[in-house]
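Note to self: keep these together.
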Amino acid sequence: MFNTTGQVHRDGVANEANTVALLNDLNLYSETVEKRGGTKLKEDAIAGDNKISIKRKKGINNGSFDWFNTTAHNAALGDTFVLFLSNMKELRQLPTSIRCDEEFILKMRDSFNRLCELALDSIDYDDLRDILIKEFDSHKDMDVVINDTEDCNLYRFKVAQHPVVKLLNDRAQIVLKGSGKSSRSIYFVTQEGNVIDCGLRLRITSNNGINAFLGNSKANKNSSIVMKLQQDKVKNLLDNCAAETISY
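Structure:
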């Protein structure tokens, strides 16, 4: 289950501040690195004209990180969730004893997961291509800094160095694979027929969980459908984009 308490966001903010301080201590930029934030900004920090996206890893062989987690691309989901969202508004009016019943919550969660699966299976690949171009090609000059707190290494590369940028520019075919309810791996097929795995995974889920949809959550008043682009195989990415390594 996804953490919907806000802890992930708070940890992320703390990590960004720590990494900004570290970048300044190491003098990796000619100008002072300043923290930025907010959901409308892609960058977590800036150094003069350099925009910087900060990621934290406890070992680059472990886990993943998100490129985006947003409602901004929900038009690509069509009307898949329209009825569900309408029903949630009505279900929030039910007595608490019904809304908080474990069996009822499980049924609502299963219903939501089936819709996530349907959305992934029916997404238009041209829409997905446009989303990837917007997120990668339009931010290709941004620096990505991954702070590996386990080995005390910083890894730095430009978004333009990500293999997906060239694949998109070369009009490689997009293919989604997988059978999970809420995620699919993104593969690319080149003009020569080669299948390339960049470690990208598309997720369709909610930001605050089913209980927030039902009005049961004390931490969150409501929930939204979100599209997430996740980076798996982080070490492979760093190798493939020839990331700079800085020890501290």
